[in-house]
C-alpha cells in the first residue's frame, strides 16, 4: 500500500499546539511548521477562548487542527498516600481540565467550519501503571476516555479525535527528579534499547493531522518503542 504524498502536507492549514514551547510540544510545532506563539493558561476557559480567537485573527483563517500537548507531572513521584491535595488538583487542572477546555472549544469551532483534527496527548504509563505516578496517570487516563467519547459525539462532522500516548521520551518533563539509575532502567526496559525522542511522537501526530489519517478515529495510539503493548 502506498500513501500519496499529497495526503501528508499540511499547507494552508492552521493548527493550535498547546504546550508547544518545549519537549514533545515543541517538536510537534516544528513538524507542523507553526509560526506564531500565543501565551495562554489552558485551565482558564476565557483564555482558551481568547487563544482560539487570536489564532483565527492572526492567520485570517479558520482553525483546522488542535494538538493538546500542555501537561505537568510531579517530579517528586509520590505514592498516592503521600500525594498532596494541591499537587493532585494542579495536575488535573492543567492536564485534564486544560485538555477538556481546548477540546470543547475546538469541537465547537471545527464543527462550525466543517471538519478537522483533534489530537490529545496521554502517556503509555496508563498501560504500565508504575508506582509514583498516580495523579499523572489518572489525569491522562481521563483524557483517553474523553477523547474516545468525543470521537463518537462528533459523528457526521468530519472531525476526527485521537489520542497519542508516548512512552519514555527524552524531555525535561521525563528527566525531572529521576536518577541516572532510574533513567537507565527505562532504557533497559525498551526493546529498542533507547529513550524516545520528541520527533518520534511528532511524526505520528503529523500523520493524524493529515488527510492520510482520516480513517483513524477514536483511537489511543501508544508510541513507546514496545515498552507497553
- Low-confidence stretches are 1-6
Listing every helix as H and every strand as E from the N terminus to the C terminus, the arrangement reads: EHHEHEHHEHHHE
Q: Please, how many helices? A: 8
Distance between the termini: 24 Å
The mean pLDDT is 92
Summarize the structure.
InterPro entries: NAD(P)-bd_dom_sf, SDR_fam. With 229 residues, the chain is an alpha/beta fold.
Offer a few descriptive terms.
229 residues; alpha/beta; Rossmann fold; 45% helix; disordered N terminus
Can you walk through the features of this model?
The chain has 229 residues and is α/β, with parallel strands linked by helices. The protein has a single domain, classed as NAD(P)-binding Rossmann-like Domain (Rossmann fold, 3-Layer(aba) Sandwich), CATH 3.40.50. The chain is built from eight helices and five strands; from the N terminus they run E-H-H-E-H-E-H-H-E-H-H-H-E. The model is unreliable at 1-6 (pLDDT under 50).
Amino acid at each position: 500500500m502506498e500513501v500519496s504524498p499529497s495526503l501528508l502536507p499540511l499547507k494552508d492549514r492552521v493548527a493550535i499546539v498547546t504546550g508547544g514551547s518545549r519537549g514533545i510540544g515543541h517538536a510537534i510545532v516544528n513538524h507542523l511548521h507553526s509560526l506564531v506563539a500565543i501565551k495562554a493558561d489552558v485551565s482558564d476557559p476565557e483564555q482558551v477562548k481568547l487563544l482560539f480567537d487570536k489564532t483565527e485573527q492572526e492567520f485570517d483563517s479558520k482553525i483546522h487542527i488542535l494538538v493538546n500537548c500542555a501537561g505537568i507531572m510531579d517530579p517528586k513521584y509520590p505514592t498516592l498516600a503521600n500525594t498532596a491535595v494541591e499537587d493532585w488538583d494542579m495536575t488535573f487542572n492543567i492536564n485534564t481540565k486544560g485538555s477538556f477546555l481546548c477540546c470543547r472549544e475546538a469541537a465547537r469551532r471545527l464543527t462550525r467550519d466543517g471538519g478537522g483534527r483533534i489530537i490529545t496527548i496521554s502517556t503509555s504509563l496508563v498501560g504500565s501503571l508504575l508506582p509514583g505516578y498516580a495523579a499523572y496517570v489518572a489525569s491522562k487516563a481521563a483524557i483517553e476516555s474523553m477523547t474516545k467519547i468525543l470521537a463518537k459525539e462528533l459523528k457526521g462532522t468530519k472531525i476526527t479525535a485521537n489520542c497519542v500516548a508516548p512512552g519514555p521520551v527524552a524531555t525535561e518533563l521525563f528527566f525531572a527528579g529521576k536518577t541516572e539509575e532510574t533513567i537507565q532502567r527505562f532504557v533497559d526496559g525498551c526493546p529498542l534499547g533507547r529513550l524516545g525522542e520528541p520527533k518520534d511522537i511528532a511524526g505520528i501526530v503529523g500523520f493524524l493531522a493529515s488527510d492520510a489519517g482520516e480513517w483513524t478515529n477514536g483511537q489511543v495510539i501508544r508510541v513507546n518503542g514496545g515498552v507497553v503493548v
